[in-house]
From TrEMBL:
GO molecular function: ATP binding; magnesium ion binding; phenylalanine-tRNA ligase activity; tRNA binding
Binding, Mg(2+): E250
Organism: Desulfonema magnum
Reaction catalysed by this enzyme: tRNA(Phe) + L-phenylalanine + ATP = L-phenylalanyl-tRNA(Phe) + AMP + diphosphate + H(+)
Gene: pheS
Protein name listed in UniProt: Phenylalanine--tRNA ligase alpha subunit
Localization per Swiss-Prot or TrEMBL: Cytoplasm
Classification via SUPFAM superfamilies: Class II aaRS and biotin synthetases (SSF55681), tRNA-binding arm (SSF46589)
Domain Aminoacyl-transfer RNA synthetases class-II family profile: 114-334
E.C. no: 6.1.1.20
Amino acid sequence: MGKSIEQIKDDAFKSLETASDPESIKELSIRYLGRKGVVTQFLRNISALPPEERPGAGKKANELKKILEAAFEQALERLETEAAATGDRIDVSLPGRTASQGFLHPITQISGQISDIFTQMGFDIVEGPEVEQDFYNFESLNFPKDHPARDMQDTFFVSDNIVLRTHTSPIQVRVMEKRTPPVRVIAPGKVYRCDSDLTHTPMFHQVEGLLVDKNVSFGDLKGILTTFVHRMFDEDISLRFRPSFFPFTEPSAEVDILCVMCRGKGCRVCSHTGWLEVLGAGMVHPAVFENVGYDTDRYTGFAFGMGVERIAMLKYGIDDIRKFFENDFRFLRQF
Ligand code: 2NL
C-alpha cells in the first residue's frame, strides 16, 4: 500500500500553507477529497489491508477527511475576509462612467421645429401614405397627363397607377376630400424622386402647408411665410417673393431669403446672387378645388412647400445633402 494516513495529512497541510488563492484551495480539496482524491482512494483500498488493521485505518482516514474539509473551508473563509479588508473593495472616489445620451437626427429636429412654428399659428399636423395613387399625387393637383414630373426619370412607379409620392401634397388633397373649410394643415413626411447628386437624394423630407377659408389672400400667405422665416432663421432677415410656376397654384411664387452667409453681398453659397431659395408657394389653383368638390366662388386658399434637408443645409451651412444619410456620428452629433 502507498502512503500512510500521517504522511497524507502532512502533505495536505504543507500544500495548504502555500495555497494563496481560492482557486488553488479548491484544487487541493479535489486532490484530497474528490471522487478520485487521495483520501477517498485510501478508504477504498482498506479492504486490501490485513483484517486487524482495517478498523483503525478506516477510523483515522475518516477523521482526516473531516479535518481536511474543515481546514479547506477555513482557509477559503480567511482569504475572503482578507480580500474584503484590502484589495477588492469598491473605490467610491473613482469617477463614474457616464452613459451617453441619445439625440434626434438633425432632419427630425428641423422638421419638428418647422411643425412647432406652424402649430403655434393654428395649423394641424396631418399624415398620409407614402405609396400613392396617380390621382392624389398628380391628377387632382392639375398636372397635365404629359407633365415632365410624371416621367419615369423623376417618379418611382410601383405600377401604372401607383407611385411613391413625389411631394406631400396628396396628404392635403385627402384632407380636403374629408373636411370642409376652414382648413389649416401642414403635411410633413418622406417623399421620393429619381434623383441623386450633391443637393438631391432619392428620398428626402418635405413639409407642405395649406390654408383654405373665405377671403384668403396672397397677403395672408406673405404674412404667414414671413413669420415662419423670421422664427426659423433670424427675426429680421429680408424675404423676397419671386414669380414662379406650379401646376397646382396660380399665382405662384418662390420665396428667397437674403443669403445667411454673405448677407446679400454675393458668395459661393448663394451663387453670387445674394439670395437663397427656401420655399415654393401660391394661391391654390381653382382646378384643384374643383377636383375635391370645394366651391370656388366661396373659398380661396394658399399652399406652400419646402424641403427639410434644404432648410437644414441653409441653417447650418452644409453643402452636401448626402451627409444627412451617411450616419457618421461625428457629423450627426454636432446638432
Ligand atoms: C416646393 C413647392 C409647393 C404646394 C407646394 C400645394 C398643395 C395643394 C394645393 C396646392 Cl393640396 N399646392 N402645395 C404649393 C406651392 C408650392 O411646393 O418648392 N416644394 C419643395
